[in-house]
Design brief:
It comes from Streptomyces bauhiniae. The chain folds into 2 domains: 16-116, Orthogonal Bundle (Rna Polymerase Sigma Factor, Chain: A); 130-194, Arc Repressor Mutant, subunit A (Orthogonal Bundle), CATH 1.10.10. It is 79% helix and 0% strand. The chain is built from 9 helices and no strands. It has helices at residues 2-5, 11-26, 30-52, 55-72, 83-116, 123-142, 146-157, 162-169, 173-192. It starts with a helix and ends with a helix.
Length: 195
């Protein structure tokens, strides 16, 4: 990540770093992909999460986008825009496809249920379960320290990279990475009790 972090602070610099990495990824460079993953996974997750809404579905879509990125890096054309814009466009398309697919599946279920004379699913139960999940996540987030909560929220809900989180909080990058790791471990432990 050392080669990228120096340019990751601003949008324009980050795009240039991503472009160099994309060229290396197109050549099959695993290290470049790892660096690119670290650079763009936060913004990609933030965008996908806003479109898809469901955290688990969002994580699946992000993995699909990053896999597509590995497979299609050679299709990137710097003459048509920055690497980050291209990557976020891939992510947006994939997220919209997921929403449309889920909507179509729900409509099919409802049509089938109407034909069978039964409800497709219990809307009240679905809403209550979603509300309970959101409350459980909020409760677990409250168990984190202020710095852990701020770092996790900025990275996973607002889509900032670690470097951007460090800049926003005026903290060293290493401190933010440590707090984020500790916070995610605590969240994982807390949310594991929800299962």
């Amino acid at each position: 990540m050392r080669g990228v972090t120096g340019t990751a602070g601003c949008g324009h610099g980050r795009g240039e770093g991503a472009e160099v990495l994309l060229v290396r990824v197109a050549g099959g460079d695993h290290q470049a992909f790892e660096e690119l993953y670290g650079l763009v996974s936060g913004p990609v997750f933030g965008l996908v999460r806003r479109v898809v809404r469901d955290p688990a579905q969002s994580e699946e879509v992000v993995q699909e986008v990053l896999l597509e990125l590995w497979r299609s890096a050679a299709r990137f054309d710097p003459a048509r825009g920055s690497a980050l814009s291209w990557i976020l466009t891939l992510a947006h398309r994939r997220a919209v496809d997921r929403v449309r697919s889920a909507r179509a599946a729900g409509e099919r279920e409802q049509r089938e249920a109407l034909r069978a004379g039964e409800p497709a699913f219990d809307h009240v139960t679905e809403e209550v379960e979603a509300g309970l999940e959101r409350e459980w996540v909020r409760r677990c987030l409250r168990r984190l320290t202020d710095l852990q909560r701020q770092s996790v929220t900025l990275a996973y809900y607002d889509g900032y990279t670690y470097r951007e989180v460090a800049e926003r909080l005026s903290l060293p990058l290493g401190t933010v990475k440590t707090r984020m790791r500790d916070g995610l471990n605590r969240l994982r432990g807390c949310l594991g009790g929800a299962a």
